[in-house]
Specification:
419 residues, seven-stranded mixed β-sheet, 9 helices, 24 strands
């Protein structure tokens, strides 16, 4: 209860009920949080996983981003093996509902306690150590203590509530990359699409998008190309009723740690999907009888608030395939920035080599939004690395360690990095 007193809203001073004590508390149940919690549980420690939505997996499930893209080993490999057992995985595409079930079963297997529909709302500090966290439940706020905490919220919420330094978005205005609302279409005749002239001549729909923008069929440009489209394994296939997951809709000028802007992007995303489904039905072979199955319940935020860590992963690390002695993960996924203010993907970044600013491309090229013609030198990443070897770069443990907080790690998109 909160009192109204002479025009001021006054929260009463009261004791917050104690919920429990753990060895480790993990905040955020996306893929990173799931992996962190299972790693702790497998070692026999008492662990609590707090998740604000109704399922584990984050963008891979709630956000419909069913495309695991990187190296798979350890817990990730175990997860993929479990998906294979129930026909929930094919060619790095996952069945979203089966994926949720696999994650549920794995946390149960390793004795991870989970709280769904529970938000982290504050941190309790003892100097530079987090002594506990406060959660919001249906019966009010509760207080939880632990020896260690792992911030997998995606937005560094725990570090932020603890008063620790964070970075958000790009330098200057703090704007984040474009955010996407993914969607799934049913009723697709996949063979007709695969055998079409469009698939052969314009597989990313660049020309047809440009034509329909010019004619007014598309009222505005969500993006200048199809980002990706995948099958949903374990659903009807090759029968004229295929289901596909699509990344196409984009909101720009994004500030995803502001609830008002998040709301704007959800509303805008669903309107865009409505426009795009009509465009697809009218223009894409094999999609004439398709229908919208559903949109993501979690917005595809690519980056937002990040910790300031003992090491900062940079674009130059990616460009030079940097290795570290304290490596805890590896990746071959290169630059892929979705335009901040205009359409297109930037598969490049501005780095510095021998004191000179240089635009450096991804291994696969420049993407659909080219660098500005400002006289800056351009070069391909292949000029900086040994292309005779498998390309990958390291994520060091230090990028998970906050410079100030004694007992907090970060994992997922909010680790210490530049944009």
């Amino acid at each position: 209860m909160i009192d109204y007193n002479n025009g001021k809203i006054m929260e009463q001073v009261k004791e917050i009920p104690f919920f429990g004590d753990y060895d480790v508390v993990v905040a955020g149940g996306g893929v990173a949080g799931f992996g962190a919690a299972v790693a702790v549980g497998k070692r026999g420690y008492k662990v609590l996983l707090i998740e604000a939505t109704s399922a584990l997996g984050g963008l891979a499930t709630m956000g419909l981003v069913n495309i695991p893209l990187d190296f798979v080993s350890g817990i990730g490999k175990e997860m993929m093996n479990e998906l294979d057992k129930i026909e929930g995985h094919w060619h790095r595409n996952t069945n979203i509902e089966k994926h949720k079930l696999v994650l549920d079963r794995m946390v149960k297997k390793y004795n991870v306690e989970v709280l769904f529909a529970t938000s982290l709302v504050d941190a309790v500090m003892d100097g530079d150590a987090v002594k506990g966290v406060v959660i919001q439940t249906k019966t009010g706020r509760k207080y939880i203590t632990a020896k260690r905490f792992i911030d997998c919220t995606g937005d560094s919420d725990l570090a932020y509530y603890a008063g620790a330094e964070t970075e958000s978005g790009r330098p200057g205005d703090g704007m984040s990359q474009a955010c996407s609302l993914e969607f799934i279409l049913g009723g697709v005749r996949w063979e007709d699409y695969q055998n079409s002239d469009l698939k052969k001549n314009d597989p990313r729909w660049v020309d047809i998008i440009r034509e329909d923008l010019a004619s007014g069929v598309l009222p505005y440009e969500s993006d200048n190309h199809l980002n990706w489209m995948t099958h949903l394994p374990g659903r009807p296939e090759h029968c004229g009723m295929d289901e596909v997951s699509i990344c196409f809709a984009h909101s720009r000028n994004c500030y995803p740690t502001q609830n008002k802007d998040l709301t704007r992007m959800y509303l805008e995303g669903r309107e865009q999907v409505d426009i795009l489904v009509k465009f697809i039905k009218e223009n894409i072979p094999g999609f004439e009888n398709c229908y919208l199955s559903y949109t993501g319940s979690l917005l595809g935020v690519r980056e937002s608030r990040r910790i300031v860590g003992a090491y900062r992963v940079t674009g130059m690390d990616i460009a030079t395939a940097k290795k570290h002695d304290d490596v805890i993960a590896i990746s071959y996924h290169g630059f892929d920035l979705h335009g901040f203010t205009k359409s297109g993907n930037m598969k490049w970044f501005k780095g510095v080599i021998d004191g000179e600013e240089v635009y450096i491309s991804n291994m696969s090229g420049w993407g659909s939004q080219m660098p500005p013609d400002d006289g800056t030198k351009r070069m391909f990443m292949s000029e900086l690395i040994d292309t005779t070897k498998q390309y990958f770069y390291d994520i060091p443990y230090r990028a998970l360690v906050h410079t100030r907080l004694d007992n907090v790690l970060a994992a997922g998109r909010n680790l210490s990095s530049d944009v």
